[in-house]
Write a structure and sequence with these properties.
Largest sheet: 11 strands, mixed
Strand content: 15-25%
Number of domains: 4
Radius of gyration: 26 Å
Helix content: 10-25%
Shape: globular
Low-confidence stretches: 1-19, 55-66, 117-136, 465-470, 500-513, 763-767
């Protein structure tokens, strides 16, 4: 068992690992593959990936190769995108090893991208003599993120080119119903468990749907449909036909639509009573007769249901291709809606609610997925098409997942903190250390000690060697137990390194990082109770991480430390138990015995600065969560942050993204969560978290997009449309703490049982 476990990933020499694959891929496809989620241990034919294109350079020639990969729907106006989602065909009857992935990804990417690159822009001479070499070299300098596989039943493997445009026609009577001068706006929702036929997304008659397009990414395909690469698409006309056939029998409707066919062995989300996606979509754009609401038919809907695996693994691994594909799909379908043969809309306004996040990452807007999403949003805004992206602040304020190493924390050249890993955890634990952009930590060293104080790894933060010129320079090593069995991985890499490191630069003081490069240390520990009891396990208890600087330069800015979220939010049986930072200086309770919502002086653990790792992009409008501070009859002036709602930083020396605004995520301290629709029409669900605060803001923005004039919209783009929101603005007497958690405006919910919007926003109650 030990020999086989250590052999995974090739020779075991870090220099032999593919340079363009990151440390998460190295773990999940290498020594950690036996600990990965069950879906990663099966033999899948199709693997999803995200490519970040490198610099354009001319080198050799590309030989003709057979088809190895596919592209999903890409938004056509984005010429020569920097980030490309794609799917790779796995030629072997097992999940590939690391060394297999190297040639597999490279060859498939070249094959699938050649028809889509702008050849004339790249070629300096004739296409025959020059372009092929440019394409090859651009791919050589690219980096890849591997994601969860696409199941065989969900894959349109017969497609020989990009997916086709959908068969879709506009609702010919919509203008007659809403009026010729009413502006049509699109609300897009990316989530799980999307009930596209729900009554709350129809018109007043209940027979016509406002959902123009819905893509379920992981259901079994309809072989006659060629409009998506994987999963199944539902257009408004198909949805209305299903409603006409099955009426109120939504169980039969979804079965007939193929929406209940589970291809991941996790059970159909659409067959549940309640889902995160149903709740969020209702808050964002649901109009219910029982709430006395008149459907806003001018707000059309595009929805994407992500695979179950997105909720299954909360570490951030395996999601990039699916999520970026969802954004491309939304932008493409919004263009179809706006066409002359569609609803003929100039500068179609679009609001996207993306209630998702993770706790790790760079937190500077430059993670691969954030940068890719920003690229799309900025391009669409440049085309004078208003585009709002709404994301939640996160729910980890009190979870002890964020810590800071400050310059003054180094005593005798070392600083240490404690990482508590829980027993009975069936999933790996991930810890990231991020150095400030532009700082070179060469000479620093990481020591990892187990709960008994025994040294388990001693690792230099530097690049030892490099065998390939592409990808992020990295250095990887193992963590062994007393039997010399590998129970973890430690690595250092220059994440999204802009330059091109060569053997000649390895020994230099600092390879140039460029605009995005940043040093990262990742420590992964195996589960403390692996699903396979024969596998070596990590010890539970308090691990010690020591950062030594030796004779290297002292840091000028903090080292940010993040533990990845490890949860099972949808009861998908992952067996996760959350690890956390354990520090005696962190005062968790105040003098009244209540949970402390302030950082302790000189403590490593920090509540502030704990924003969602996907909420730091420059085009994102970040939404925190509040509760009513004086009960259901109180106004927004008495609103208080929900205790879990994450916050921006307080220290101006290390600024970052801040919470822009907030809305309700708890009705009161004892009435937790918000109430919205369940999966079936007429049912209700209760969900807690900033994910349910964000759609209140998205809803108000969509309604503002319908009525606001072009000049107001253009002015508001500078603050990501926050200035279009109405509610309770921050009071002059609000301290920095309140603003860091609630932002500049508190947006009222459109509906919650027992609440009165008039009371919430009334001046008398606020006073």
């Amino acid at each position: 068992m030990t020999e086989d476990n250590n052999a995974r990933g090739g020779s075991g020499d870090p220099a032999d690992l593919p340079m363009y694959l990151g440390p998460y891929e190295a773990w999940n496809f290498g020594v950690g593959r036996d600990y990965a989620l069950p879906i990663m241990r099966k033999s899948w034919r199709y693997i999803s990936a995200l490519a970040e294109l490198g610099a354009v350079r001319r080198n050799s020639e590309l030989e003709r190769i057979a088809r190895r990969g596919w592209l999903p729907t890409l938004w056509k106006p984005l010429e020569n995108p920097k980030f490309i989602p794609f799917v790779v065909k796995n030629p072997v009857d097992r999940m590939p090893e690391l060394e297999d992935l190297e040639s597999l990804l490279f060859n498939a990417f070249i094959d699938v991208m050649q028809p889509y690159w702008d050849l004339t822009a790249l070629a300096e001479s004739s296409i025959a003599s020059g372009t092929v070499g440019i394409l090859l070299d651009r791919a050589k300098t690219s980096r890849f993120r591997v994601a969860f596989p696409v199941t065989d039943a969900a894959m349109h493997k017969e497609l020989e080119s990009a997916p086709q445009d959908p068969i879709w026609h506009r609702d010919p009577d919509l203008r007659d119903r809403i009026g010729e001068d009413t502006r049509i706006t699109v609300m897009a929702v990316i989530d799980d468990g999307i009930p596209f036929a729900h009554r709350n997304f129809r018109d007043a008659s209940g027979t016509r749907s406002r959902v123009e397009f819905c893509w379920h990414q992981s259901v079994a395909i309809d072989e006659s449909q060629k409009s998506v690469l994987f999963g199944r698409e539902y257009t408004r006309e198909q949805i209305e036909d299903l409603i006409e056939q099955y009426g109120d029998d939504e169980d039969a409707l979804y079965r007939k639509a193929g929406a209940t066919v589970d291809t991941e062995d996790l059970g159909s989300m659409i067959d549940r009573h309640a889902t995160h996606g149903a709740h969020v979509m209702d808050l964002a754009t649901g109009y219910a007769p029982e709430r006395g609401e008149e459907p806003a038919e001018e707000i059309r809907i595009i929805a994407v249901q992500l695979p179950n695996t997105i909720a299954w693994d909360t570490s951030g691994f395996g999601k990039d291709m699916y999520m970026l594909s969802a954004f491309h799909y939304i932008f493409d379908r919004a263009d179809i809606i706006a066409r002359k043969e569609g609803y003929d809309i100039d500068n179609l306004r679009l609001v996207i609610n993306f209630s998702y996040g993770f706790s790790g990452g760079r937190h500077d807007g430059e993670s691969e997925l954030e940068a890719a999403i920003n690229e799309l949003v900025e391009k669409r805004r440049d085309r004078e098409c208003p585009t709002a992206l709404i994301v939640p602040a996160g729910n980890t304020f009190l979870d002890r997942l964020h810590g800071l190493i400050l310059p003054g924390d180094f005593v005798d050249g070392a600083s240490q903190f404690h990482w508590r890993v829980q027993p009975n955890d069936r999933t790996p634990s991930y810890l990231e250390l991020w150095f400030w952009r532009g700082f070179n930590p060469k000479g620093y060293k990481i020591e990892l000690r187990d709960p008994r104080g025994r040294l388990r790894s001693e690792f230099d933060i530097e690049i030892k060697s490099t065998t390939r010129p592409n990808g992020d320079p990295n250095n990887m090593g193992g963590i062994q137990n007393e039997l010399q069995q590998q129970i973890g991985q430690i690595s250092v890499d220059m994440h999204r390194h802009d330059g091109r490191i060569t053997q000649n630069t390895v020994d230099q003081d600092a390879p140039e990082l460029g605009d995005t490069g940043r040093w990262r240390v990742l420590i992964v520990l195996a589960p403390t109770e692996p699903e396979d009891a024969r596998l070596p396990r990590a010890d539970s208890g308090k691990w010690t991480v020591v950062v030594k600087r030796g004779q290297a330069a002292l840091i000028e800015h903090p080292i940010h430390c993040w533990i990845q979220r490890s949860a099972d939010p949808e009861s998908l049986r992952s067996g996760s138990r959350q690890s956390y930072f354990d520090e005696y200086k962190d005062e968790r309770y105040d003098l009244n015995g209540d949970a402390s919502e302030m950082d302790s002086n000189d403590a490593f653990v920090k509540r502030f600065g704990s924003l969602n790792g996907l909420a730091t992009g420059k085009t994102s409008l970040v939404v925190g969560g509040y509760r009513l501070g004086a009960g259901l009859g109180s106004g927004l002036g008495s609103a208080r942050p929900s205790r879990y709602s994450s916050a921006g930083a307080l220290d101006e020396k290390w600024p970052g993204k801040q919470v822009d605004c907030s809305s309700m995520s708890d009705r009161s301290r004892v009435l937790q969560g918000t109430v919205a629709a369940g999966v079936r029409s007429g049912s209700l669900s209760l969900v807690q978290g900033t994910s349910s605060a964000a759609p209140f803001v998205a809803r108000q923005l969509a309604e503002a997009f319908v009525t606001a004039d072009d000049e107001s919209i253009e002015r508001a783009a500078g603050d990501n449309y926050r200035s279009l929101l109405s509610g309770c603005p921050s009071a002059a007497e609000d301290d920095d703490v309140t603003q860091a958690r609630l932002g500049r405006v508190r947006v009222p919910p459109h509906w919650q049982p027992g609440l009165s919007i008039e009371l919430l926003t009334g001046e008398e109650e606020e006073a």
